[in-house]
Amino acid sequence: MASIPQCHVLFVGPVACTRHDILTVMMKIKNKMSHLCVSEADIITGHYYNAIDNAVKELINEAGARAVIIITCCQNELIGTDYEMLCKSIRRKFGISAECVQINRLNMFRASKGAKLTSGCLEDVLCGLLVKDATRANGRDKAVNVLGGIYPLPQQNELIELLAHSGYKIRHLSTCTTYDEFLKMAHSALNIVADSNAIPAAKRMEYTFGIPWVDMSFTLSLDEIIGQYRCLENALGIPLDVSATKCRLENKISNSCHLLNGTPISIDGRVIAYPYSVAKALIEYGFQIEGIVTTEFTAKELESKAWIEANAPNISVEFISLRRQRPTIGNRFFSHFKIRVPKSNYPIGFSYIHQVFDTLAEEYRKKEGLV
Amino acid sequence: MSKLWRVLPPPSPDTSGVASVFLGMEGHLIFYDVQGCASNYCVYDESRVGEKINVFPAQLSNLDIIMGGSNQVQIKVDELLQKEPDVKFIALAGSPISVLIGADLAAEAKLISEKTGKLTIPVDVTGELFYDVGAARALEAIGKYMLGTKRFEIPKSVNILGALTMDMGAVNIEDLRSLLGQSGMTVLSAWGYSLSMFEIENAPHASVNLVVSYSGLKLAHEMKERFGIPYISGIPCGDAWAKQLLGSLNGLTCKVHRKCRHNDHILIVGEQILANSIRNMLRMDYSITTVMVASLFDMEKEFMEPGDVKLENEKELLQFVHENVFDILIGDPFFERFAESEEFPPFFVPFPHLAISSLIYADIIPSIIGQAGIKWFDSVLADYKKCNDGNMG
Fold first, then answer.
1. Are B342 and B34 in contact (CB under 8 A)?
2. What is the reported pTM?
3. Per the CB < 8 Å rule, is B4 touching A108?
4. How far apart are the first and last CA of chain B?
5. Of B35, B41, B50, which is closest to A105 when you measure between CB atoms?
6. How far, in Å, CA of B322 to CA of B325, rounded?
């Protein structure tokens, strides 16, 4: 959320709650996140409304905030805070945009019933800022938005060159340098969803600004990626020739498979996104998968998980809780060799698959002393 | 007073202080809280990752809050006791939720005790104060409910009070135990550091208590009142100061030799007793006289010197640093973020404090006990000299 330029996140709650995001704050988004530690008296007397006002004022005056996202805690929920009124009041008093994200651990099941909680609605909240501040464009810019993720698309991603070739530039939250630049995202011709969590945002922008969207979220199936590019072609009305890229990739996969020659591979979900889907795809390409380690299970992987259970029941699957794992987990799952594909690299298009197989072959050669 | 933290994260809460004290003990700690939060109390501020987790949330839901949380707390207690029936005690700690609905922790604890037959200790925290307060209350509660009444003094024996990994790091606590042992003392217990029932049982027999953090002070007062055990506060770091402190523990007097050095102005920001001890080391081993101590956490007035200051928030810290001239600032690595301002002191010495920077820099907490303190500060001075020479060149 703090990727939006000149937008500040204000976490409001007691110290016990606000300290939760310390690692993110200090390591990743310095100076974009502030914490307002309220007391029991603030909550009971309603003084926390004033405290939020004062904090927002300080963020505007001293940090140049043009938008704030307020994160609240169980306590605010418990006393029945009217979040919409809170945001409206900030917008009215300070003339900036404001959105609220509710954290309510008192009722974790609300998320499954569609309530707006942090998980899964962040993109939606970002979009909320856009919806309230941006104007609906008469014409569309020759630009596409990439929705999802906190990093820009890596330069080697083929999407950049393909779109540039047709005169389209790519807009992403992380590449906006000013709030006004962020608002221009409302004028783009198309939204490309790079992460399925961003689908609500894409739908909302389609409804509000009439911007169509295509889903290009993660898949390791070459045919599915071709299908995604066909959708992109149709949406933009431009030809996108990816046949050569696909052909190169097929050769690369075949060579890697030949090189590894049945060497067992373990997939570690701590260092690679979507471990079940990766395992499924590798098996289909002819690789030998021995085990999967996973730290979380997402709905997106449901199909791949079922496929693995039905078609490769001998693969060992271990779930490891991230909680307190730091020094206790050894590298026993890397008994053969390990590949590391940064999660920050977008699993979108052919480029990601290229990287997976490049890394796989490179590490194997290192291990076998072939380099 | 500003409650907004913009440069630093909010420091460790009282709930983390409680969790740190109870972690590794032979009982269960249950927070009167919602689900999910207790892991944070441990994960962010606890370096003893090898310890078995004995800290749990009661997992209250909306309905529990409206209808009363007792039932859910009892369910959680039963669930835990079913898995581990042999635990020696249960501790019930408050949270931002319990304080908001006015839960009577003492009554809840009594109820649990009656139902389960287990000693149940209430720990009154709110999640709104800092870790030092929570740790102090936890230690006090353990003292109140678990210390026996009989005492026969074991000569040359000592309890370490307030030994929190969050302040000193586990290495320094272990080194402190060793140093005390080498000096002829028997360490009966280390309160705050995986305290065992055996240690609690023996604690009243100590001839002296060594208070190593503010969190241990109230317990020290309590033990002095109940058992007549005298206490001394400080951490034996360096040479002369360590000798003096250990000498005091042994009831001896000790002459100190002072080396002569230039008179730098130093500010130490951190836990008061740790910072005071470093100050004593700087004075006695390095003859650096102008050393001020500041802390974002509670400070004992009796131990404050003129110029020392209790800071309420990051703004006050920033202001204090800017309004006074210091050559060296010793403090958590996160304080270096203030260096973005132009008037920041020229030389910064990182001394990680888990209550500020969590586990991010836990690996570089320096060893300061005894001679290790000299080694540490010698290297600091060497870097400082290099930095000054570089600036002059």
1. no
2. 0.82
3. no
4. 44
5. B35
6. 7
DSSP secondary structure letters along A183-243: HGGGG-SEEEESSGGGHHHHHHHHHHH---EEE------HHHHHHHHHHHHHHHT-----H
Chain A contact set for B5 (CB, 8 A)? 18, 34-37
- Backbone dihedral angles phi then psi of residue B292, each to the nearest 5 degrees: -110, 150
The pLDDT of residue B234 is above 50: yes
pLDDT cut 90: percent of chain B above it: 67
The chain B residue lying nearest A35, using CA atoms, is B5
Q: Tell me the β-bridge partners of A98.
A: A68
pLDDT tens sequence across A296-352: 667 778 888 899 999 999 888 887 655 434 332 233 333 344 455 554 456 678 888
Cα B246–chain centre separation: 20
ipTM of the prediction greater than 0.85, yes or no: yes
Nearest CA in chain B to A78: B62
Give the span between the Cα atoms of B363 and A56, in whole angstroms. Answer: 36
Find residues 91-120 of chain A whose CB sits inside 8 Å of chain B.
105-108
Identify the H or E element spanning B111. helix B105-116
**What DSSP character marks residue A49?**
H
Give the burial string for B126-163 (b: 16+ CB within 10 Å, else e): bbbbbbbbbbbbbbbbbbebbbeeebeeeebbbbbbbb
Given a contact cutoff of 8 angstroms between Cβ atoms, the answer to whether B271 and B295 are in contact is: yes
Region for A255 from its dihedrals, namely left if φ exceeds 0, alpha if ψ lies in -120 to 50, beta otherwise: alpha
Q: C-alpha distances in angstroms, B215 versus A131, B137, B138, B243, B299? A: 50, 8, 9, 24, 10
Separation between Cα atoms, residue B90 and residue A304, nearest integer Å: 44
Q: A321: nearest CA in chain B?
A: B39
Token digits for B138?
């936890």
Q: What is the pLDDT of residue A84?
A: 84
Q: Shortest Cα distance from A57 to chain B (angstroms)?
A: 11
Q: Phi-psi region for residue A365, left (φ > 0), alpha (ψ -120 to 50) or beta? A: alpha
What is the DSSP secondary-structure string of A141-156?
-SEEEEESSSSPPPTT
> Which pLDDT tens digit goes with each residue over A242-279?
888 889 999 999 998 898 888 888 888 777 778 888 88
The residue assigned the tokens 């003859």 is B287
Quick one: tokens of A59? 């963020």
Q: What are phi and psi of B77, to 5 degrees?
A: -60, -45
Quick one: how far is CA B338 from the chain centroid? Answer: 24
User: What is the identity of the amino acid at A300?
Assistant: K
Least Cα distance to B72 among B25, B100, B31 occurs for: B31
Q: Could you give the 3-state DSSP secondary structure of residue A293?
A: strand
Which A residues in the span 286-345 are in contact with B, Cβ-Cβ below 8 Å? 323-324, 326-328
**Most B-contacting residue of A106, A117, A325 (CB-CB within 10 A), to test interface:** A106
Contact A18 B97 (CB under 8 A): no
CB contact under 8 A, B16 and A55: no
First-to-final CA distance of chain A: 43
Token pair recorded at residue A342 = 């940064």
Mutation target to probe the A interface, by most A beta carbons within 10 A, among B4, B338, B341 is: B4
Rounded distance between C-alpha atoms, residue B280 and residue B266, angstroms:
12
Instruction: Check if the beta carbon of residue A19 is closer than 8 Å to that of residue B44.
Output: yes
B271/B214 Cα distance (integer angstroms)? 7
3-state class percentages of chain B: helix first, strand second, coil last, to nearest 5: 45, 20, 35
Facing residue for A15 by CB, picked from B13, B39, B53: B13
**Residue carrying the six token digits 């909320």:** A128
Between chain A and chain B, the number of residue pairs with CB atoms below 8 A apart is 135
